[in-house]
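HUMAN: Would you supply a protein with fold tokens?

ASSISTANT:
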Amino acid sequence: MLEYNSIEAIVLEANRRNMTISQVVLEDQANELGVTEENILARMADTLEIMRNAAQAGFKPGLRSNSGLTGGDGYRMKEYTAQGLSLSGSFCAKAISLALAIQEYNAAMGKIVAAPTAGSCGILPAGILTMIDERGIKDEQAILALITAGAIGLVIAGEATIAGAEGGCQAECGSAAAMTAGALVEMAGGDNEKVAQACAIALKNQLGLVCDPVAGLVEVPCIKRNAGGIMCAIGAADMALAGIKSVIPVDEVIAALAEVGESLPITLKETAQGGLAATPTAIAIKERIFGR
């Protein structure tokens, strides 16, 4: 039975069985939960459908959050991408539009998949859905990639944290970027070692990211940080697929995430007392929404 306390250990076990990470995790989870693999795959298929629905709803041009602070940027990015003007290419631009749309739908109180949290819910779906749309990945492959992402998230949650209130936004968008990078590599046909390398590269590029929600709402800067997170994940996946390795092993990067999170001041851990939340514009927004 897998312990989910080390990504490298999962990689070693998967390699020993000559399986992908998703295959070994699927088998392990079925045994641990006392259900069939088909049952788990069906539940993950439902998860993928929720992600699709959130993306579709998030692209509505009139979408606004209850605060009125955010909405419509996913649609704007989608329209811009359709014009073929994106500097980053259609794959990245589509992923950005999806990340924005899904996170905006979350801010508008829509149903999303916390992946691993609501504040980072746009990153993993953006990667999965873009691979389906742009690279012709089948749903079956996407579902397995979600299982790989889940295993990465379990390790990070157990060995560090996925909570912004505990570790800053590095714990939320950073974890989501790492999960997504690993999932992208597996969908692209990369081996288990490259999945781990992508995870390490993505996570270390998000270390130190603070959680400073304006007015205490999961809108600004959270929504655009989801867009940044998917770009980080794509870059990390591409580097890993190219054979580039992280000098610091993935499990040590996760340990560093925990240490950095403990070192962050409380003002930068979801309290809305520091960072962008303490700027004059942010204070004015807070007063407009909630009063003095």
About this structure: The CA atoms of residues 37 and 151 lie 15 Å apart. The two ends are 54 Å apart (CA to CA). The chain has a mean pLDDT of 98. The chain has 13 helices and no strands.
